[in-house]
Write a structure and sequence with these properties.
alpha+beta; 13 helices; Rieske Iron-sulfur Protein; 3 domains; about 20% strand; Naphthalene 1,2-dioxygenase Alpha Subunit, Chain A, domain 1; seven-stranded antiparallel sheet; four-stranded antiparallel sheet; about 35% helix; globular
């Protein structure tokens, strides 16, 4: 039996249109922190390890240097070209320092490709030749020449990769979890699933119903629905890529394609589709899956029970979930390769915090401890209240002034009130936040 190698596979990190080419972008897959960046005057994005070899500072907090076009670390200014070679060390006393030590000073570069409007990464930088010869897990439904149009979405999720795969491979939850969004609980019917192929590298299932559907799981990340709309030739595709991020976290990169109703695609803003449907669907799953995932992990760790005893799955609607779990047990020993990462029990206590508002929380870290800042903040709030009160009283008073004095006295009073309102806005939305949180983005410090 061959063990599945999660690292020697292609993963789509994100839709290319969601990457800001002007600043480095951090992303994590299989516990590996990566940074996406585009060298100046280059059409291709690069994917590096998100650690500067100098003192392990995150390169994602760096910037693309305007003069050299290389990636600059914002801790000490070291720079790296698109091949990961160090090109500048501002602190170097000897001109030939870099040349003599290049092997130790370079950044780890991960093979990457751009295809079907997604940025892909190969997670084993030591097997670049194998990466070149391994095809990307692409969908034939993302092809404009075949008449398809599509949209995409990316979102990080607070539950494991296994829970995400199970969820996407389970169409029978849709009428209930997504009632009034994509389904109707009152119209739910049995969903008989038949497994037609199961190999180490591919699982396929079919659903014979009004809209015949083929579901494909191509390990480690592609789960695709190929839906035929009767005998009309109309096709829909739901292509999802489920990425393991870290224990308890995953990411979904999804594409939604069809070869009909193309004009709707052109007139519907992508952001509107996201807030009205895509994120609503993921919200419907979020709490359910996070708790389901936690319950299963607790049983596995405390009671030494697996999904086989924790789940009760008597209907054919769960056949694809069962087949996935069997594949995961057979070829992955029922676990992701976290043990292969540079982690230990001590390091696990120091998980990187992605919440910038917590890291840069000025109020709890400083303001509440500083009498000067605390007093200034209180005064600012008092001034805001006074300005609002004056504005309300001014407008109310002028409204009841006799006509003969409204123009003489009313206009100056209203003008002062409006000026006070402008001052209020500056205090409320510019000055007051500085006592709580101000994001610090190195790449924007020109």
């Amino acid at each position: 039996m061959t063990e599945f190698n999660f690292f020697q596979n292609w993963y789509p990190l994100t839709p290319i249109e969601d990457i800001d080419p002007k600043r480095p972008t951090p992303v994590t897959v299989l516990g590996e922190r990566l940074v996406i960046w585009k060298p100046k005057n280059s059409e291709k994005y690069q994917v590096f390890s998100d650690r500067c070899p100098h003192r392990l500072a995150p390169l994602s907090e760096g910037r693309v240097d305007d003069r050299t076009g290389n990636l600059m670390c914002s801790y000490h200014g070291w720079q790296f070209d698109k091949a990961g070679n160090c090109t500048a060390i501002p602190q170097a006393e000897k001109p030939d320092l870099i040349q003599q030590n290049q092997a130790q000073l370079c950044v780890k570069v991960f093979p990457s490709k751009e295809a079907q409007e997604l940025l892909w990464v190969w997670l084993d930088p030591e097997t670049a030749e194998l990466a070149d010869s391994t095809p990307l897990p692409l969908s034939d439904k993302i092809d404009a020449s075949k008449g398809y149009v599509w949209s995409s979405v990316v979102r990080d999720l607070a539950y494991d990769w296994e829970a995400l795969i199970e969820n996407v491979a389970d169409p029978s939850h849709v009428p209930f979890t997504h009632h009034a969004v994509q389904g109707n609980r009152d119209k739910a019917v049995p969903v008989p699933i038949e497994i037609v192929k199961s190999t180490p590298n591919l699982i396929q299932a079919i659903i014979v119903r009004a809209f015949p559907t083929t579901i494909t799981f191509e390990p480690p990340c592609r789960v695709e629905y190929d839906i035929a709309i009767g005998n009309t030739g109309k096709q829909m595709g739901l292509i999802t890529y489920c990425l393991p991020v870290s224990p308890g976290k995953s990411r979904i990169v999804a594409q939604f394609s069809r070869n009909f109703a193309k004009n709707i695609q052109q007139i519907t803003p992508r952001w509107w589709e996201h807030i009205q449907e895509r994120n609503v669907v993921l919200d419907g799953d979020a709490i359910v899956l996070q708790q389901q995932n936690a319950y299963l992990k607790q049983r596995e760790e405390r009671e030494e029970k697996s999904w086989k005893t924790a789940y009760q799955m008597p209907t054919s609607a769960d056949r694809l979930v069962i087949e996935f779990r069997r594949w995961f047990d057979r070829y992955c020993q029922g676990k992701l390769p976290w043990h292969q990462l540079e982690l230990n029990k001590i390091a696990a206590q120091y998980n990187i915090n992605e919440n910038r508002q917590e890291i840069l929380d000025r109020y709890n870290q400083h303001t509440k401890h500083c009498s000067s800042c605390r007093g200034a903040l209180n005064n600012i709030k008092r001034i805001q209240i006074a300005l609002l009160v004056y504005f309300i009283l001014a407008v109310s008073s002028v409204a009841v002034f006799p006509d003969n004095i409204r123009m003489t006295w009313g206009l100056p009073i209203i003008a002062i009130a409006l000026l006070g309102l402008i001052v209020y806005g500056g205090l409320k939305f510019w000055l007051e936040p500085k006592f709580y949180f101000v994001d610090y983005i190195h790449s924007e410090k020109d």
